[in-house]
Amino acid sequence: MDLNTGQEEEEAENFAPILAFLDHKGYADHFKSLYDFSFSFLTSSFYSFSEEDELVAYLEASRKWAKRNHMTWAHARLCFLLGRLSVRKVKLSQARVYFEEAIHILNGAFEDLSLVAALYINLAAIYLRQRLRHKGSALLEKAAALLACLPDRESSAKNELEVVAYVLRRGIAVGSCSLEARACFLAIRLLLSLGQHEEVLPFAERLQLLSGHPPASDAVATILTFLYDKKYLPHLAVASVRQCGAQNAQGMSLPIWQVHLVLQNSTKLLRIPSSSWGEVSTLACPTLRQALAACEEQADRSTQRALCLILSKVYLQHRSPDGAIHYLSQALVLGQLLSEQEAFESALSLAWAYLLASQAKKALDILEPLLYSMQETESVTQKGVVHNLLGLALQGEGRVNRAAKSYFRALNRARETGDVRNQAVTLANLGHLTLKSRAQWPARDYLLQAVRLYSELQASMETDMELVQVLLWLAQVLVYGRQLTSGRLCYETALLFGLSHRHLKSQLQVTKSLCHFYSSVSPNPEACITYHEHWLTLAQQLRDREMEGRLLESLGQLYRNLNTARSLRRSLTCIKESLRIFIDLEERDKAAEAWLGAGRLHYLMQEDELVELYLQVGLPQAPLLTWAIWRGSCTLQTDQLALEKGDVLAKSLEGGSTWAAAWTQDGNQG
């Protein structure tokens, strides 16, 4: 409605349209824009005013004409609009005057409940902001009642939160859980509309406690899940989704966005960059299984297949192909019901899982019929992929010649299509096959060709991880041929790729090989310690406590072999850390060895006063070791340790140690 007529404002006829529009008794749908949160009336009803000050002047003149003509509803609505615009400019006292005038004019009329509620709530918010509670206690009660009791009322102002807080305090003061819950709900709705997500959380958590029963608690749990994710609280986000799932009725599925949220947040819990290399945390499994069960109830085959593939991936990550086979078998059945392409992909995945489970025969049972069925197809790439997997299956069955032929067929298909990556994969598999057959020179040639092809590909995490495996095989060939420098270079290059992508498992694989290289193939104690330290860091990042304990034990031995004051001190630190882990894991024998090892190190560092303490704790936990010491049936190292213990015990006896004397007597009895 363009109300800018260009005439002087004093002429009454110029204000007739706006006054007629606003002077409607009761509520009408076209008034909705006057009361909403976003001030949409500025663009819908008064779009012709380019400046807000012009609009204020026009509305003020209209108010005077409405007052003069006793147009109650137009007068009240104009006061309300002027009050809202004053609040927008933070002129609270001026806004208070307008709101009070509007309430006085209406004189208790409730025909337009939206207008009445907006007036009382806006005025109450100003009273609270200006600390005028004593002036309008009755008005505050009315505003609180309107705010709490009107259903589906839209918020009209940011300062409404003041009144919501007042209602919340009243609910707590009188012990009304329902009023407190209503206030929490209103606060959540208002803060979400303002985009203040961080402030919503305490209200949502309190509302969840107060509601305590579905469907209200389900809705709050959904909001909490969203908020925990926003605030980067992955533990709480995952727990909230699980609670939603536990409360859902049987057959109701979790929303897909919640499943996705669990997948994201469960990787954050590991505090490792697993999301960057596509791994799925086991913490997501309960949610995935629940979603899968719900999809089975609803016959949602596409989502069901996707969930089966994700669950199979978790099992493959943890080297449990049997579990992966279970889900991939389901995915194959579902894929056959969906489309030819999805059936093909599922069949390949299942065959791969059988290969990882060392069940090459079952993989062949899938791949050979699949290859036969593809005789009519024109997809050269798909045939090449099947030939490649078929070669792996035949290799697993020990049929080397047939495996080589299958690899060559796959290589030819890849060359036909110019697929560099598939060529590289096939050459790598050929290299591995010939390596296993003890044909070192052909293996070296195939693997070098594969490395060259990988170097032509655009760098990505997936291709670089494949290259890591090829470099490990190539290093193995070179080391067998006594080309140690080249072999070491391959190992270290592979480690660099793992480091660049922060791929922990590939780093672990390469680091193990480097530790073996520097301990057995080309001994270098300092380098061996360096890579053992890196291996220890990886174990800590993977949270593998058992591996961490073993590595600390090995590092203690390596540092002790250096036999310097500094290395002995570091060795003692490693042994004590391993002792703590073995105690936590309740590995008594390992813990006993660590106690005795720490005692030996204190002896070597001539800290005799501590040796007796470690022997006193360690020996009762290792009765077999004690027996072996006194029976003379242990290794040279243990014999040496026994002699050292004897020295310490002798010194203890000289000092009058009753425990040492008793221990010696027990030993002599053995």
TrEMBL record:
Taxonomic superkingdom: Eukaryota
Entries under InterPro entries matching the protein: SH3TC1/SH3TC2, TPR-like_helical_dom_sf, TPR_rpt
Gene3D superfamilies reported in the protein's UniProt record: Tetratricopeptide repeat domain
Official protein name in the record: SH3 domain and tetratricopeptide repeats 2
Organism lineage string: Eukaryota, Metazoa, Chordata, Craniata, Vertebrata
Gene that encodes the chain: SH3TC2
